[in-house]
Amino acid sequence: MRCLVNARSAARTLLIMLLGIGLVAGVTACSSGTSGTSGTRGPVTASVGDLDPVAIGPEPTPVLPATVKSFDGSDVTVTDTSRIIAADRYGTLAQTVVALGLRSKLVGRSNSAAFPAVQDLPTVSSGAGTLSVESVAALRPTVFLTDTTAVTPALREQLKALGITVVYFDPQRTMDGVVPQIQAVAAALGVPDAGKALAQRTRDEISAATASVPHQDSKPKIAFLYLRSTAITMIAGPGSGADSLITALGGIDAGTASGITQEFLPITSEAMIAAAPDVFLLMTDGLASVGGVDGLEKIPGVAQTPAGRDRRVVDMSDAVLLSFGPNTGRVLTALVKAVYGTSNA
Question: What is the percent of the chain where pLDDT is above 90?
């Protein structure tokens, strides 16, 4: 997912496809060491425990019709939420529907929504994350929640022609966007009170997690790596989403600090050595795809970094690490513990 500047569009397209593939993978974590402070060597798996979002309360009764501003600029009126499909490349929208207490209304999901509560539901995207209009239509949704990256302009026209009610959401995942997106999903489904409560709980959990970051004389430089076998190795930069997460952890995004200007850049020895991270942050399945920490150290430049020398590797389930939804506070709490070795995180 890293490319030269003149190939940024192609790299972004590849990233979307690869995330679709990567987030389909299982969510089993694999730890190969113990955590420690910034000076301690050894890899660790950060875990949120149960991957399912916790519902904010009993199933709410939607107040419909609900008219909302879709992210594509249109006004959409939702009249029925009895059959919801929620599909995006990170599984965020399905997580939010479940956390709002509306799991019973979900009839379809994207492959990236891989948490246990929805694994029995049919998917509407391929292994590459590409949306299938036919799969969506076959489930007869009364409302389809998605984003403007998952659905191309051509697919939007097909959905419109089929008369499917579609609400589009912001495809970007950032810390600042977590609460507004929860509220936007709740508004579209006619449950603004549940949305308000879920937004407040999530805000409180995020605040508690960030407050637990211990004081450091110098902030750790953390590099997020996206790996899908040794053929696909990327380091994150500005706008990747990982940079926002790393900042919330009290760290410095190593890729951005080294001068990377793209969301993702293919790893080279030069890029890795310039980034000089103290800690590597990865998805669990990505780490496994290169043969674990031993395989990671064979990627060009990794062994020459402080993180590589100290084997400072933190991995977390693909299902939650970059989802930026109602699990965000729990994700941050687990990462603070893993990065800093704190017992009160």
Answer: 82
Is 266 part of a structural domain of the chain? Answer: yes
* Residue 97 resides in a domain: yes
pLDDT value of position 42: 86
Could you tell me if 245 and 154 lie in one domain?
no
Question: Going by DSSP bridges, is the β-strand pair 143-147/166-169 parallel, antiparallel, or unpaired?
Answer: parallel
Mean per-residue pLDDT over the chain, rounded:
89
The residue that leads in pLDDT, 23 or 164, is 164
Looking up tokens 């970007």 gives 172
Longest dimension (CA), the chain: 58
* Helix intervals (H) in 5-114: 8-22, 92-99
Contact at 8 Å (CB) between 257 and 277?
no
Q: How far apart are CA 169 and CA 108, in angstroms?
A: 17
CATH classification at residue 20:
3.40.50.1980
Q: Is there a single domain that holds both residue 199 and residue 217?
A: no
Peptide bond into 65 cis (omega under 30): yes
- CA dist list (Å): 315 to 142, 210, 262: 38, 19, 22
Q: Tally Cβ neighbours within 10 Å of residue 27.
A: 18
pLDDT score, position 126: 74
Residue range(s) defining the domain that contains residue 178: 66-207
pLDDT digits 0-9 by tens, 268-282: 999 999 999 999 999
